[in-house]
Design brief:
The structure is a homodimer. Chain A is of the alpha/beta class. Chain A folds into 3 domains: about 70 residues, Arc Repressor Mutant, subunit A, CATH 1.10.10.10; about 140 residues, ATPase, nucleotide binding domain (Nucleotidyltransferase, domain 5, 2-Layer Sandwich), CATH 3.30.420; about 170 residues, 2-Layer Sandwich (Nucleotidyltransferase, domain 5), CATH 3.30.420.40. Helix content of chain A is about 40%, strand content about 20%. Chain A is built from 13 helices and 14 strands. In chain A, a hairpin with a 3-residue loop joins β3 and β4. In chain A, α1 packs across α2, α8 crosses α10 and α10 packs across α11. Chain A is globular and about 75 Å long. The C terminus of chain A is likely disordered. The interface between A and B is large, with 82 and 82 residues.
Amino acid sequence: MVPRQTSRDLRNESRFEVLRALFELGPSTRQEIARHTRLSTATVATLVTEFLSEGVLRIAALERRTVGRPYERLAIDPDRGRIVGVDVAETYVAATLFDIALTPISHGEVTLDEHENSQAYVVDGIVRAVEAAVGTGAGEADRILGVGVSMPGQVSPGAGVSVFAPNWDWHEVKIEELLAQGLRIPVYVDNPLKAVALSEMWFGVGRVADSMAVVNLGTGVGAGIAIDGALIRGANNNAGEWGHTLLQLDGRQCRCGRRGCVEAYLGVHGIETSLAEIDKDHPALRQPLQRDFIDAVATGLAAGDPVLAELARRTAHYLAAALGDLVTLLDIPYITLTGWTSTALAEWLVPAVRAELPDHVLPGSLPDLTVEVSRVPGNPVALGMAAFALEHFLGRLGLPSPASAPIARRRTRPQS
Amino acid sequence: MVPRQTSRDLRNESRFEVLRALFELGPSTRQEIARHTRLSTATVATLVTEFLSEGVLRIAALERRTVGRPYERLAIDPDRGRIVGVDVAETYVAATLFDIALTPISHGEVTLDEHENSQAYVVDGIVRAVEAAVGTGAGEADRILGVGVSMPGQVSPGAGVSVFAPNWDWHEVKIEELLAQGLRIPVYVDNPLKAVALSEMWFGVGRVADSMAVVNLGTGVGAGIAIDGALIRGANNNAGEWGHTLLQLDGRQCRCGRRGCVEAYLGVHGIETSLAEIDKDHPALRQPLQRDFIDAVATGLAAGDPVLAELARRTAHYLAAALGDLVTLLDIPYITLTGWTSTALAEWLVPAVRAELPDHVLPGSLPDLTVEVSRVPGNPVALGMAAFALEHFLGRLGLPSPASAPIARRRTRPQS
């Protein structure tokens, strides 16, 4: 029953390595790609020829030498088409149009009323955000090769294509089908934890490490996990729900129904609850919107508000304890923080978490443990979803380049 | 930086598949092995020839047909040599002598005084347990191909070969070297969570599933984790320390120094603490030895003791919550319980945990979730360590057959 890789899988992985080298290095010669990937020059030459013939790569420059043939510098051809990455949250839809080198071109955003949750309303919001990102430029819409959409809650890409979104009370919604009808473009749906992990693997610490947890702090909290270069999906594509692991048995009520979850302390409502415990009349609690609350906390902290300093202290304590569990269980060396709470409060949370984390981690897992705010640019959910959509487009071209498939899926073909 | 498999890695993995098929099927023809492993018959024939020439396999039977050549049935040759697997705990050393088909032959056990923790004392105890298992039979000692020793605490096999054992206050002890001097045989050291995971992968639910958590309940508690067929080791071989993740922030003092760890509720001392909270004068608490305490609890439960029924209820509540975290974080479909607490109290804990687990797991991770007591026979730590020692012996023969190496380690060679 142990799954097994085949020669074909190796070739597909090598193909991804070539793309990844080009994302990292920019325009490169075949020799540079071979050196970077440690693939043979023959393998690189074959894969490059495939990509050139499908227009995925182009010759970006010719480099002349004093003798011999000039070197060709290869690059992903941005003109090959467009990819859209979409981040659907409970309060907004943010869409980014990318070229296939995953350089962002334009954005579109639509606000969602969190009290309106019909399928038609949300699908319409997604379609409008994509249209806003794509714009009305000549023929732009026709150039889109794929759309990747991150949906909150539990998502089963491929087979089931259903969504269980706790806040929306959706069950088994055929969201890929609905969106494909609305957008008339191939749509791939996944969940945001998988998207932030993939963007970190392609464009963040994945460049220096194979194992990482990408911890998202926002309305909800969760962790995208990669181990030894593979995105951990779990048996039902539901891995990473760190926000619903315990901080406190039988503690605060969580919106998932359980008590004492990490999210009940580190989600925005959890941080609001902590503030109310310290000072229920604090003005920051009067902000009706979650983002405004977090911004008010950041502003107050910068101004030296002692109540908010105590809030930051408690929140850092909860975060250090909850990150400690991730490290203790998986002995994972890199934690990157993402999401708007992370961004807004990094200055106060990160140093405190680094200082306290050793109290929560067994000594054996401490060497080289790194906690930092993610350096992935832009909206990492939209970027990760665009990377998934690109992966799927390449698969449809007959050039599979898997960067995220769990090992078991990559290894299903019998060896011939 | 994403590691990559090479053709040589594929061949090594295929070699392991052949061995695994023989462990599962017993004596088999090349055709049966090919069908079971989905390897080509040519590949199977090549690998079988290698194994035959090194004496790892033998022709166990010839099966005659009415026409054509007879089929050869192949089996692991039990006479090729012996492997010893050793389970070192804080209160005992248990050693099992196996043939290289990993069939147990004989056992030896030595009691350790938990207050005596010098290196010489522990090393001597291990040597005596191995000698007791091997016995004084003619030449048995000379036939031993390798010894696998599980040590409590943090173990870095290979490079560091050091141990940090919290209860023994050992730091950076070169245990492989010390043992190899004492035993004059190649020694491989690892930690018990890796051993129980490997035995489950080879001889337990690994036969039907690629992802599992093997939860060990004894003096300490922890979880061996396999995902998509790979043993999760972590950056410092320290993954699986589920016993030191939080059940209760700032809760009961744990012997690791942190407060509120799972082990402080589910380790034997944790269960004793729970009983003392219900009835500090309960007679079971008068048992001086941990195993006698657990046996007294089992006996009392069987006799209908209402205080112990309340203890079982609370312990099952803690266990369901803590297992829920494992499932929620990793979306892992199989949990097997091992260790002597699991064995002694299964009748009371398992049904209660199964009933409560859905309250602690997101709905998306519930389908097909299975919790059961491990069916791996004998001492799973000793068996797992013997499997590691066999893996290392095959590597020394020039026939690497990796069953446990993390993907990143398996994939370090450049492709040629």
